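We were asked to recover a plausible sequence for a given structure. The inputs and outputs are reproduced exactly as logged, with field labels preserved.

PROBLEM: sequence recovery
POSITIONS: 394
GIVEN STRUCTURE:
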């Protein structure tokens, strides 16, 4: 039986998200050859077991990329090229850009093609025609609310989810959502995001004198920052001294106006995005990491806060209940409930030191037990091997 399998991890851009980059590096230490297709945002030097098949985002390099793989297919895989051209034409994807993306995949012909974003599944469904196994990751917005807001997208999911070979779900909750669109539960495997725990060992343990609340994430309605600010208003009315910092929301007008309306200009700080290392340091120095989201899969920022030794308060959105157990390893509150957020923060402020240490230790145990890089990589390998070696999860 073949053992030197080729696994393509596709997100469309190189490098990609933190999860994908960790997965790529983890797989490179195993027996698999990893392929990355897409456009190169910046140069990353990977190990020899990671093959980058990328183009630069200029007209010249795109043309060169297309010419190279067009010639290779014409010379050595003419029949398969003709078949792919017919498929692309039937799907109204006969543009040069589509050929530039698809031809390299057909030429290298990986054993598994792992698509990271559900909205792209129709585009890449053709790989199955060439005996390439198709894996789809189930992530936050693409599953939780995009198909609800877009009936056409929901219909597309119902057409293609039943024929996908295997699914990677970032949480149990999101796997259940995918079943509503025809994803077979037998083909879904939950693999949680994994952290490199070594990166949290040497963080400076410097806490602010004031009670410092921090949130991290882009400015988007699903992040629930408006509810967090209303909670801050409740804290201020109760004369609770605090500082609330939102990293990633710098210049967001809606929040700026809300802060002014609530009279929180001296209490709330909006920062632009920070580097990964800067975020870790900021979380480590905070009194509590607040995730006020309306929708999430499982937020990496919560996992990182738990690993770094910072208390976590999160809404019970998405899969967060799979990680955080209220008053055991963190704190939970309902979504869209500013009063509950404020009540939990006041409870955390009054938390006895002994109880606080117990919760922090349990949080670190949770990360060690189910969110390490090794666990993540091994979980993904099981998905690939499920398809390649007999379709049975152990």
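RECOVERED SEQUENCE:
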């Amino acid at each position: 039986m073949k053992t030197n399998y080729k696994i393509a991890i596709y997100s469309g851009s190189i490098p990609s998200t933190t999860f994908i980059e960790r997965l790529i590096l983890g797989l490179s230490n195993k027996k698999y050859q990893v392929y990355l297709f897409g456009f190169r945002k910046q140069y990353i030097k990977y190990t020899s077991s990671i093959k980058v098949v990328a183009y630069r985002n200029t007209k010249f390099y795109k043309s060169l990329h297309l010419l190279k793989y067009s010639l290779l297919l014409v010379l050595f895989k003419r029949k398969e090229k003709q078949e792919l051209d017919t498929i692309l034409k039937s799907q109204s994807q006969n543009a040069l850009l589509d050929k530039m993306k698809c031809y390299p995949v057909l030429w290298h012909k990986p054993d598994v093609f792992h698509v990271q974003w559900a909205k792209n599944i129709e585009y890449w469904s053709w790989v199955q025609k060439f005996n390439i196994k198709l894996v789809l990751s189930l992530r936050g917005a693409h599953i939780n609310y995009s198909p609800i807001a877009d009936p056409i997208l929901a219909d597309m999911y119902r057409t293609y989810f039943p024929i996908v070979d295997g699914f990677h779900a970032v949480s149990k909750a999101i796997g259940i959502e995918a079943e509503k669109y025809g994803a077979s539960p037998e083909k879904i495997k939950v693999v949680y995001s994994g952290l490199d725990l070594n990166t949290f060992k040497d963080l400076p343990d410097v806490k602010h004198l004031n009670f410092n609340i921090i949130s991290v994430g882009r400015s988007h309605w699903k992040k629930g920052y408006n509810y967090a600010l209303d909670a801050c208003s409740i804290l201020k009315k109760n004369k609770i001294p605090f500082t609330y910092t939102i990293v990633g929301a710098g210049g967001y007008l809606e929040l700026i106006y809300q802060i002014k309306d609530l009279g929180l200009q001296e209490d709330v700080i909006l920062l632009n995005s920070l580097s990964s290392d800067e975020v870790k340091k900021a979380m480590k120095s905070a009194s509590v990491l607040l995730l006020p989201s309306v929708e999430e899969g499982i937020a990496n920022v919560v996992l990182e806060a738990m690993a770094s030794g910072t208390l976590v308060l999160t809404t019970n959105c998405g899969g967060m209940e799979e990680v955080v157990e209220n008053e055991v390893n963190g704190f939970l509150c309902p979504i869209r409930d500013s009063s509950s957020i404020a009540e939990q923060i006041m409870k955390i402020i009054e938390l006895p030191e002994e109880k606080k240490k117990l919760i922090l230790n349990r949080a670190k145990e949770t990360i060690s037990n189910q969110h390490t890089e090794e666990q993540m990589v091994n979980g993904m390998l099981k998905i690939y091997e499920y398809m390649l070696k007999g379709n049975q999860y152990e």
